[in-house]
Amino acid sequence: MLLIAISIMGVLSMDMIYIFLILTIIGAILHLFLSKAGKTKNRVFEVFLLWFLVIMVGIGSIWAFMGHVFMASMVAAAIGWPAGSPFQFEVGIANLSYGILGLLCWKFRDNFWTATVIAISTFYFGAAYGHIVNIMQTGNISPGNAGYSLYIDIIIPIVLICLLIAYKMTAKKQIIGQEDSSLSSI
Questions:
Q1: Cα separation of 16 and 23, whole Å?
Q2: 101 neighbors 57 (Cβ within 8 angstroms)
Q3: pTM of the predicted structure, to 2 decimals
Q4: Axis crossing angle, helix 41-51 with helix 148-184, rounded to the nearest 10
Q5: Using one digit for the tens of pLDDT, what is the confidence trace for 113-141?
Q6: Three-state SS string across 73-135, please?
Q7: Structural domain boundaries of the chain?
Q8: Which of 42, 103, 113, 114 is the most buried (most CB within 10 A)?
Q9: How far apart are CA 26 and CA 21, in angstroms?
C-alpha cells in the first residue's frame, strides 16, 4: 500500500502545486460564499490569506517534505541534483516545519500568521536565489530547478506578503472607522 502511495506521489508531484493552488482559490471562494460573516475587504483578504497559509504553505510544504524525504532520488532528479545528498533530508525537515506552521494557521491568527509568512517567504526567496545561482553556475535548467519550482518560490511569498499587508491595513482601517463612528455618536 505504501509503495502504491509513493508511486502516485511520484506521478503527481510536479502537478500537485497547481492542484494546491486551485484548491486554495476554490476553498477561499467557497468559504466566503458560505460564510455568514460580512464580506468586507478585510474579510476577503483574511480568508484568502488563511487558505493560502493552510493549503499552499501547510499542505504544500508537507507534500514537499514527503517528496524530499521518501522519494529523495526522484525529487533530486527533477531538480537536477545528484541523489543521496543528506542536505535533501534537511530540506525535507524544513518543509515539514513550514507545513506544521501553515496548518496551525487555521487555529492561530494575528502575529502567528505574520511569523509564518516571514518564515516561509525567507525559505522560498532563499530557495529561488539558490535555483538562480545554480542555473547561472551550472546551466541546470531541469524543470524542478528552472521551471515551476523557481516561479512558485518567487510568486507565493509575494502573494502571501501582499495578502498579509492588505489584511493588516484593512483591519486598521476598520478599527479607525469604528472609532470614528463611535465618536460621532457621542
A1: 10
A2: yes
A3: 0.85
A4: 150
A5: 999 999 999 999 999 999 999 999 999 99
A6: HHHHHHHCCCCCCHHHHHHHHHHHHHHHHHHHCCCCCCHHHHHHHHHHHHHHHHHHHHHHHHH
A7: 16-175
A8: 113
A9: 9
